[in-house]
Amino acid sequence: MTTKGVNWGDIEGIVLDAVGTLIDPNPPVAVVYAQAAARQGLVVEVLEVKRRFHQFFRVDEIDEQLGPLATDEATEYRRWRRIVGNVLPDIPDPDRAFDELWSHFGTSSAWRAFDDVAPTIAAFRELGINFVIASNFDSRLRGVVEGLPALADCGDKLVISSEVGFRKPHQAFYQHACAQLGLPPERVLCVGDDPENDVNGPIRAGLNGLLIARDGRRSGDLTSFAELARTLAEFRPARSK
Questions:
Q1: Which pLDDT tens digit goes with each residue over 123-136?
Q2: Claim to verify: residue 101 and residue 163 sit in the same structural domain
Q3: Last residue of a domain, which of 109, 142, 161?
Q4: What is the pTM assigned to this prediction?
Q5: Residue 210: beta bridge partners?
Q6: CA-CA distances (angstroms) from residue 15 to 160, 183, 220, 225?
Q7: Mind listing the pLDDT tens digit for each residue in 3-12?
Q8: Residue 19 near residue 50, CB atoms below 8 Å
């Protein structure tokens, strides 16, 4: 496991990304969008939907980064309306499609927790390591988390950009996460699947950061949470002596 200079003996808190790190859409986003189009008689290939989604999701994030990364619930709602409109530009009733997709991804049944999430959270608690779930999502994440058995008791551990007022990688977002943990940045480790939001951004803000690469299509510091739990366990006993 690559550690990017993390001083494991000093780590007392963990900041976990949500989507792609703890949870994943099930079925995949592109399939759900294609199904929404099909309900209106529009046939769009799943691979094409996937291509458009990745294109416009990133473009919209770049647009947000031109400003101060400020956000709130209304901003996120408008942002997702733009994304849906760009991914499905020819759909007959765009408002209906957006409402369906917004509602769908706000339910826990649209998501699955990765298999290693529950045992890793149990390991954090056994080791006395506090953690938060920090995401560029909106308030819908609360219902999603509460409805997933692996995360059901983590509702008080959420740090959501639309509630904080700033999106990753704004430093204020990470400062808020550290404040919720009650720890200085140097004692906090961020783990997520986005190099900028979950590694580079946290490091610039004084935290530690590690990249998890679950799909095997790119290199990362971790391929699963099992590695993280094992490494933390190696250092926690030394701190308690």
A1: 999 999 999 999 99
A2: no
A3: 109
A4: 0.93
A5: 191
A6: 12, 11, 17, 13
A7: 668 989 999 9
A8: no
